[in-house]
Design brief:
This protein has a seven-stranded mixed beta sheet with strand order 7-11-17-16-14-12-13. A six-stranded mixed beta sheet has the order 1-6-9-10-3-15, with helices on one face. By secondary structure, it is an alpha+beta fold. About 30% of the residues lie in helices and about 20% in strands. The longest helix is centred in the first third of the chain and has 20 residues, at about 55-75. α2 packs across α4. It has helices spanning about 30-35, 55-75, 115, 170-185, 215-230, 260-275, 280-285, 295-310, 355, 360-380, 390-395, 430, 455-470; strands at about 5-10, 25, 40-50, 80-85, 95, 100-110, 120-125, 140, 145-150, 155-160, 250-260, 320-325, 345-350, 400-405, 425, 435-440, 445-455.
Length: about 475
């Protein structure tokens, strides 16, 4: 296939507010600095429209996307700024100055849109041309980069590459939904400058309380990482994102779905086995209180088991499973749901692979452990957070399975005026090997699972996944 960049433009916030004409600084919080130099998060949304000839794309679609992006940036000014570490400042900040912009690449591809936007198995490399690079250096990093690629007479895709230390998943989804809302309002000849309250970002950082001094801890840990990885001459204040995490060779992407009936059957299986799980197991996972049997827990447990079996992991291999948890409503005082920035922590556990893969009770034992991790979150959302970064950096990538995305973000609702997305992919899992979760595209309450595995592992996973549900 061939993909050609037609234009790389810089989109500035619309010049309609005093705020956009004023320089301001937005400091990072300890939630942000935890993810300080991790690789960015990539997401692609595919939209199908058969009327999209090259002329219609360049004369109608692109101008509307540019104009609506400019209007949206009025509300999301930090995205037009840049991340820097001012001299004399104890921590990095997002600095916005008038005339700052967001990079938007416009491209055209002759690739097979129907195939790329399907759930079928595809080489991970096939989606890379549609993802813009996120610039970062020792001195400055961009918060976000965007690319719109047309597939003539088939559709287009929008790719969002976002800096993990500036946006968490909820904030990225908030931005894309706000952009889609304004673009669709323009399509319907409505006032595009006003966002509903739930799509208006909350930028006040004073709501974040660092009572445990985690900001200093994380910045010190990152400085040590820079020294140990790049030598004593490395600048501990460097903003350059880690370059040692890349897409492994021969990785393919695939998508699987659990519908509501599948999840119900998994739940019933676990419930039927709880009485049979030995007391020692129950004590280990602290299951004296009601366990979580949510779609999230059941999906993660079932997918994790199928992954380990498909990869033929040795039973004595110690596997770490972790997930990111939004704590906006869990901390005191609570943080608004539309807070812009990171407000997440990570929870998880480690166990020998044989526990997950046990033939009779593997699913139930895995569910119990994930449920217990959620209970720990409920008891103390920030407990042990100071240990996360060393853990992230020391666990072998193949021995760590994490979760990206969430069914709560409702990304399939992002209608820019050309309908709902046909397909949404989190492409950064190509590098991390994480399990990508999205709400099912049909809106019927199921879960969409994205994976990036070797081809033979994908074939084995497919067989295990289907057989287990049957």
């Amino acid at each position: 296939m061939s993909t050609q960049i037609l234009e790389v433009c810089q989109v500035a916030p619309a010049d309609k507010s005093p705020e956009s004409a004023t320089e301001f600084s937005l400091p990072l919080t300890f939630y942000d600095t935890l993810w300080f130099q991790f690789p960015p998060v990539e997401r692609i949304l595919f939209y199908q429209t058969t009327e999209l000839n090259p002329t219609h794309f360049t004369s109608i679609v692109v101008p509307k996307l540019k104009q609506s992006l400019s209007q949206t940036l009025l509300h999301f000014l930090p995205l037009a700024g840049h991340l820097t570490w001012p001299s004399g400042s104890p921590k990095p900040s997002i600095i916005y100055t008038p005339n700052d912009t967001v990079s938007l690449s416009i491209a055209e591809s002759n690739a097979d849109f129907d195939f790329l936007s399907s759930n079928g198995v595809k080489e991970a490399a096939e989606l890379r041309p549609f993802i813009p690079q996120l610039p970062s250096s020792d001195a400055v990093s961009s918060p976000i980069a965007l690319q719109v690629t047309t597939f003539p007479d088939k559709g287009f895709c929008i790719a969002v590459n976002s800096h993990h230390a500036i946006l968490d998943g909820r904030s990225t989804a908030l931005f894309v939904k706000a952009w889609a809302y304004i673009c669709k309002q323009m399509e319907e000849k409505q006032n595009p400058t006003i966002l509903p309250a739930e799509l208006t970002p909350f930028l006040d950082r004073t709501v974040i309380k660092d009572v445990a001094g985690l900001e200093t801890v994380f910045l010190s840990q990152w400085a040590e990482v820079n020294r140990s990885m790049f030598g004593n001459e490395s600048d501990p204040r460097s903003l350059k994102l880690r370059q040692d995490i890349s897409v492994p060779p021969n990785v393919v992407r695939s998508t699987f779905q659990l519908n509501r009936d599948d999840i119900k059957r998994l739940r019933e299986k676990v419930l039927s086995q709880l009485e049979s799980v030995n007391k020692e197991e129950i004590d280990i996972v602290n299951s004296t209180t009601p366990i979580h049997l949510s779609s999230f827990v059941l999906t993660c447990a079932y997918t994790l088991i199928c992954m380990l079996k498909a990869r033929q992991v040795e039973g004595d291999t110690r596997i770490y499973f972790g997930f990111t948890a939004d704590v906006r409503k869990r901390v005191e005082p609570p943080v608004p749901n539309n807070y812009f920035g990171n407000c997440v922590t990570s929870k998880g556990f480690a166990a020998e692979a044989r526990i997950f893969m046990e033939e009779n009770y593997g699913l139930t034992k895995t569910v119990l452990r994930i449920s217990n991790a959620i209970k720990e979150l409920e008891k103390g959302p920030l407990d042990g957070m100071e240990k996360l970064l060393p853990l992230f950096l020391t666990v072998k990538p193949r021995d760590c399975i994490s979760v990206a995305g969430s069914t709560q973000f409702q990304v399939y609702s992002c209608d820019f005026g050309w309908g709902r997305p046909k397909k949404v992919d989190i492409t950064s899992i190509d590098k991390t090997g994480a399990i990508a979760l999205t709400e099912a595209s049909d809106g019927l309450g199921g879960v969409e699972i994205g994976l990036a595995l070797k081809r033979h592992e994908t074939e084995a996973f497919t067989s295990l996944f289907v057989k287990g549900l049957a």
